[in-house]
Amino acid sequence: MTTLVLTIVGDDRAGLVSAVADIVDTHGGNWENSELAELAGAFAGIVEVSVSADRADALRAALEGLSGTLTVTVHAGGAAVTASEARTVTFDVVGNDRAGIVRELSSALSAHGASIERMSTQTTDAAMAGGRLFEASLTATLAADVAVDDLVAQLERLATEIQVDVTLAGDA
Predict the structure, then answer these.
(1) pLDDT exceeds 80 at position 62
(2) Do 70 and 90 fall into the same domain?
(3) 3-class SS of residue 110
(4) Can you tell me the distance from the alpha carbon of 57 to that of 145, in angstroms, rounded to the nearest whole number?
(5) Which of 19, 40, 52, 101 is the most buried (most CB within 10 A)?
(6) Cα atoms in the Cβ-side hemisphere of radius 13 Å centred on 103
(7) Residue 99 DSSP symbol
(8) In a domain, 162, yes or no
(9) How far apart are CA 20 and CA 160, in angstroms?
């Protein structure tokens, strides 16, 4: 089996996921993992699909047929890091919204060789104080030789600098 990663983007409307799922199914593919969302009237997602190697090119070609409705880019799936080689750290961030929070967090993770596995962010109205709150939930994969304590210390220093709360949800 071949793993393909699809990135999909288009104007939000009913039936977009169904259109992609139908093509994947028609070509013998298996929809394995996905993250899909509507943001500001646009639909975007990333989908992991497995398909037999001899049907991968036909699946790619069929997905190109969605052009005009969705922009679908097909990427070859990469080798995943095995559990024995990596650990996972998950944390939440909450604070007053301001430009640069994601840049600061991602730079700190990158400096420690951490790879963001999942990240979800949102801004909401701050009920009592007015203004906007920034909230994020991140899961990062760390190589076995990265000291989790060093990363946590860096995130705590960063939280003080950019005035957000960073809460470690768990690590392995």
Answers:
(1) yes
(2) no
(3) helix
(4) 39
(5) 101
(6) 5
(7) T
(8) yes
(9) 44
